[in-house]
Amino acid sequence: MDLCECLRRLIIKRRKGKRILEPFPGPPDHWLFGHVKEFRQDGKDLDKILRWGEQYPLAFPLWFGPSVSFLNIHHPLYVKTILSSTEPKDDVAYAFLVPWIGEGLLVSTEQKWFRHRRLLTPGFHFDVLKPYVTLISDSTKIMLDKWEVHAKSEESFELFQHASLMTLDSIMKCAFSCNSNCQTESGTNPYIQAVYELCHLVNLRFRFFPYHINAIFHLSPHGYRFRKASNIAHRHTEDVIRKRKEVLKTEREQGIVKNKRYLDFLDILLSARDENQHGLSDEDIRAEVDTFMFEGHDTTASGISWIMYSLACNPKHQQKCREEILQVLEGKDTMEWEDLNKIPYTTMCIKESLRFYPPVPGMSRKLTKPMTFFDGRTVPAGCLVAVSVYGIHMNATVWENPHVFDPLRFLPENTAKRLPHAFVPFSAGPRNCIGQNFAMNELKIAVALTLKRYHLIKDINHTPKMIPQIVLRALNGIFIKIKPVKTSPKNI
Question: Where are the coiled-coil regions (predicted)?
Fold first, then answer.
């Protein structure tokens, strides 16, 4: 295909997109770059989304390059229409993840998604999650022990790297029955570095539209870096699967039969069978392991880091949480399953931080059929719809004083009065996050054990700049200071 033909097709596609999105006014876009140059990855991109949201209520178009457009929605009533459906993830941004995480639950579609979701759901039953509490507590305590040096020095330190190692340690123990020792190893963890690199490169590829063409990206230096990082991630997951298969083979040979409630996520993947007694292929198993390894550690690390930063910025709320936690733990140095529902104020603070700093600030779908929103405006099949989770959570028409940290928003009586899709940190509907209970449990355990041991103090010389790179990160890191909690005799 010659250059003229490519340009002709781009022009036709752009005109069609403009016509489809005509009912939705939005910010002016450049004919070639769209809105790409508006997003400078300087820590202010999400603020721009909020400003445009105030200008264009409910929804507005965003263009990435000359022909790729998304209807960006930021109101619960619009979000309900999308998330109540089983519409697949979009085939632009999410397609860039496939060489890394395969076609697991995050990106799979239609019958494959339905089948995998049904087979994997037992892996998140509370009987399976229950023993994880002790394992997550152990991983958290390793992290907190490492923090002693920062408590003594009273110098600020970066949270995300510590949280990433802790959540990777937890996911390896819980989901894959593997003691990785990643928190105590010296040097940088190669898997975590690979995930960070991959998130950055997927985001870069989406923003630079020539990279949407596979051949161009493949031949570029960024494509080489992506393949190198993918290989590191794949070797990591392949090693986990291989070791677990060897253990299960040995157990079968020895006649060891495990209670179903003690199976981990990988055990369930390896033994899952549908109504025809067909299991998952090796390729499908690796895709689900890659997906859960990434989502189960990186998004949770983001959540933990921003929650602790939020509490450092709000010492009064932090102290209320601490008092509640000390009362519940009664001198224990670990969390138990029964404790998770005994810390309502802490849980409200966690939710309020997830509202302020959603670990996944946006998601997108591709419509397979026309869809009409509550105000009568319609989009056709094939349209790409982006859900701005951050935009919804900070929408002033939905949340009173959205920039004020107020955990009482999540009192049951206040939640009941709010639109159901106003708070969607784990998405919602049939394609919601299958691991959200696991993630919430880990957030509660990490916060509770941290506040029992340390006061979190804001570093007034360092304000993190939010940057969305699949998960919510900080361009300049998330820094806090800590000091030990003086425990009274009754709490020892």
Answer: none
Q: Closest by alpha carbon to 421, among 387, 370, 385, 465?
A: 387
CATH classification at residue 409? 1.10.630.10
Dist. CA 90–CA 177, nearest whole Å: 33
* Distance between CA atoms of residues 62 and 41, nearest Å: 16
What CA dihedral angle connects 396, 77, 364 and 431, to 10 degrees? Answer: 120
d(CA 479, CA 19): 46
CA triple 271-445-107, angle to 5 deg:
45
Which residues, 6 or more positions from 460, have their beta carbon under 8 angstroms from its beta carbon? none
> Which one-letter DSSP state was computed for residue 89?
B
Phi-psi region of 262 (alpha: psi -120 to 50; beta: other; left: phi over 0): alpha
Q: Residue 220 belongs to what domain range?
A: 3-491
Tally of residues, the chain? 492
Mean pLDDT of the chain: 92
Q: Is 433 annotated as a binding residue?
A: yes
What does the block give as tokens for 14? 């752009």
CA 53/CA 35 separation, integer angstroms: 15
| Alpha carbon distance 54, 367 (integer Å) | 25
DSSP state of 371: E
Ramachandran angles phi, psi of 363, nearest 5°: -150, 170
Query: Is it the case that residue 124 has pLDDT exceeding 90?
Result: no
Using the structure block, give the residue that is written with the tokens 């033994």: 271
- The CA–CA distances, whole Å, from 342 to 72, 319, 347, 396, 487 equal 38, 16, 9, 31, 20
Distance, CA of 171 to chain centre: 14
What is this structure's pTM?
0.95
Residue pointed to by tokens 């390894």: 293
Percent of the chain exceeding pLDDT 70 equals 97
5: its two tokens = 């033909």
Work out how many domains the chain is built from and give that number.
1
Angle value at C-alpha 273, between 271 and 276, nearest 5 degrees: 155
